[in-house]
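Sanity check

After download, print the first record. It should look like this:
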Amino acid sequence: MKPLFICLLLCFFLKEAFGQVYGKIINKNGQPVVLANVLLLKDSDSIPVKRAFTNAEGIYRFGNVASGNYFLRVSYTGYAAWTSALFSITGEQPVKDFGTITLDENADVLKNVVVRSVKPLYQQRPEGTIVNVESSVMSKGSSALEVLERSPGVLLDYRNNSVSLNGKSGVVVMIDGKLLRMTMEQLVSLLGGMSADDISTIELLTTPPANYDAEGSAGIINIVLKKNRKQGTNGSASFTGGYGWGEKATAGINLSHNTKNINLYGSYTFSHDKTYSDLYITSTQVMNFLGGNVSVLFLDTTKMIHNNHDANIGMDIKLNAKTTIGGSITFNKSTGSSSTFNDAGYNILPDSLLQFTGVNKGSNKWNNLVNSAYFERTISEGEKLNFNIDYLYFNNSSPYEVQSSFINKHGQQAGEESHLFSPQQKGFANTVIKVGVVKTDYTKQLNKKTKLETGLKGSYTTSSSLSGLQSYINGAWMSSDETSNHIAMKEAIGAAYLSFNIQVNSSVNLVAGVRYEYSYTNMDDPKTGANIVNRKLGSLFPNVFFSKKLNDNAELQLSYTKRISRPSYNDLASYVGYSDPTAVYTGNPFLKPTITHNIKIGYTYKSYAVSLLFSKDNNAIVRYQLTESPAADILYISPHNLASQNNITLQANLPFKLNNWWTMNYSFAGGLRNYKADYTKHPFEKNYFGYSANFSQTFKLLENFTTELSGWYNSISYNGTSKVNGFGALNIGVKKELKNNKGTLSLSAADILRTERINVFYGAVTEEAFSIKSHVIVTTESAKFPIIKLTYTKSFGNNGIKRKTRQQDSSTDESERIRKN
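Expected structure tokens:
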């Protein structure tokens, strides 16, 4: 690969470079004008030769400009057009720098013009795929989790509450660059209650650059919330009502008041969801503690109610032309209750029958608070300093009670008077997490071709978790070391990065960076004083991004990144959670971190994008694997390291516009996957082809109606020793824009064919613990009845010019290390 890379570089560098034209567009307040239309015109006939749009910093650039005389014309809605004097591009003077151009506002236009634009649903960038949530009719009234499920390469495991990207676990999830440090179970609950109406984009970053943390071997999912930067007082409100198996409702409001120097914003959303799922399990296993060969039929039905509150308030203050400060507070509160009903029959060959019935009732309450503050200083043209500080607090409480009956064919209690066979059990899990993060970033344009980025980051986390399972035995509540857990954790991570962005010539760009991270993790048992984990890890994480513009429409990209996934807190902690009378969930303190190497080759032509990603994972972590206890009397469900994992993934995004009223988009992510495991009874290797595919068809009809038909499908996949059959869904939505700016009505129906039923197989790859062979059928709510939602949305306020500024918080990329209890 190294000789190939060098040859590519030489070929690109030796190619003849044409002239280039560039500059920056700002308004009278000194803020960049984003997406301004810039035309390069031939002087002889004023016909546009090239067209460009300014980026988030207001910068535009034309490459491969042939020798000749030109005009430059800049236009943007709400501003007076600007036209340059005649200028020339020659062999002696191939570069024209217009510097900074200030546009004047056109007040008359501002009063009367409303701009509407629709971005494509999916966009490809060198670091990953961008999902423009607002471009889908189906997003109205949906949750963030439902939007994720319909996104390219994303796979949700509802049975285990996990998220994978392109067939790999080790995903970290952020909201506005702040990493969510909570259990994966609570993360899924949060995203299930978060309204997609509040989301602007979802970034699926498989190869993030050096200014992101190296955490996340599979990549980063960053959810970017809407930010209203219009002048004056503006806002929007939305209301959703729906039904599937149970009722759904969401209501939210977003307000902002922006002046020349002060931006105030805030939002609040409440969501309610009553839902349902069930499991049907057929299994055979050899469990000597139950009497030998066992055949099991198991039905698990769960009814859940979730209520979520999400609030956000913030302020940006421009102290002067060069200095801005600001801060925000984000608060999430969730309460949930669930009732799980179990009915199982155990046939112990040849003729002994056991019957288990149980009711598991529990509640789940958590609060998540994020305080952020930042300072931004423009030192000089092209030189900027940012300083950020964050404090994150998370509190979770999850008590539950189990009432069960486990009897033989004579009506007698089965098993001994021991923990998991007790008719009455209760459990609890309480977790408190506190995180402090400090980050500073410095950028400087060293010259016209080279930009420097560097920064430091430090985070310190303290966490306390107390969990246990008690059984009512002989008239008293009893617990044991096997069924209780108390862990205190301290973790410190320090990082420094350095990156250079080099515009080699008008068509070649090179970004090269390196990040160094040092982490220290310590876990103790306060009850015994025993040290569970004491781990130190320091490593360099280099990355290189290379792009070559072949012409105005085509670009070739090549990149290399190195990433890490550290074991989460609950991956390491030896907690115990009840599953059934023969099995418990637990952690694995011997887990190693995953180190990933990625090489990506990409090609874009206009809005079409294709890429090939090669990834190699050392010690990849797979969760919910089956092993036996040392005494061979309990089944452990816990995470383990794979010996190795290698993936070759093809990603493609193909949008088509057939005419003004019919557009479509197709996306694909899949390829060859290989992994080896040695934690099982017999080591094994697995090769398979896996993929996910998404499509959408949008039709603009008469009377301001828009309809969308969309669908997704995930092929066969594997998680360690378990196999998951392919499954998917078909969705439909209709939107009506009401006249006279009275709002929008959207009606959506998810899984209209009721196909979202998931089949999981254990023992299909290798021999499992206790020689288990089982088939698990997970029936989601929509498989019972399509989920139908009606949403009304109304915007109000001034139609001023939209301005966009985005601050990177110091908690950006801070690792999501807390998962399932």
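If your output differs, re-run the checksum step. Summary of this record's structure: Residues 2-14 form the longest helix (13 residues).
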